[in-house]
Design goal:
Layout: E1 2-8, H1 11-22, E2 35-37, H2 40-46, H3 49-61, H4 66-73, H5 77-89, E3 94-97, E4 103-106, E5 109-115
Parallel strand pairs: 1-2, 1-5
Antiparallel strand pairs: 3-4
Length: about 130
């Protein structure tokens, strides 16, 4: 497995960076974050202690369905589904659809690294 690098940046900076990349004005540098949050608060909500424990449980137990994960975690399936879909939106989990409508959660990373620069990332440049 690999390491996921996460960055913190303002929405405006993230948008300008994305637009510059789309226009070919900027190429992402090796080692730059792949996933961005607009604040430490939003990062801490998605990757709270409870949710990091959930990720660890998925890695260790390799559940074959959301129902199995709900049973293992003690969390309600509806709550679990909502949390996992949010995490999927950030690329933190993968929800594989299997035959019979089963959804199998997987964590494609071994580690998550938070990159918090003092100077904001420049949206345009080398």
């Amino acid at each position: 497995m690999k390491t996921l690098k996460i960055g913190i940046s303002s929405y405006e900076t993230m948008k300008a960076r994305t637009m510059a990349i789309a226009k070919g004005e900027r190429k992402p540098k090796r080692g730059e974050p792949k996933i961005w949050f607009t604040s430490m608060e939003s990062f801490s909500k998605v990757l709270s202690d409870r949710n990091r424990s959930l990720l660890r449980l998925i890695v260790e137990a390799q559940p074959e369905s959301l129902a199995e994960l709900a049973k293992l975690s003690g969390r309600a399936k509806s709550n679990l589904s909502r949390t996992l879909r949010t995490m999927e939106g950030y690329g933190l989990v993968r929800l594989d659809k299997k035959a019979g409508g089963k959804i199998v959660p997987r964590v494609p990373y071994e580690d998550i690294v938070l990159d918090v620069p003092i100077k904001p990332y420049e949206p345009i440049g080398a």
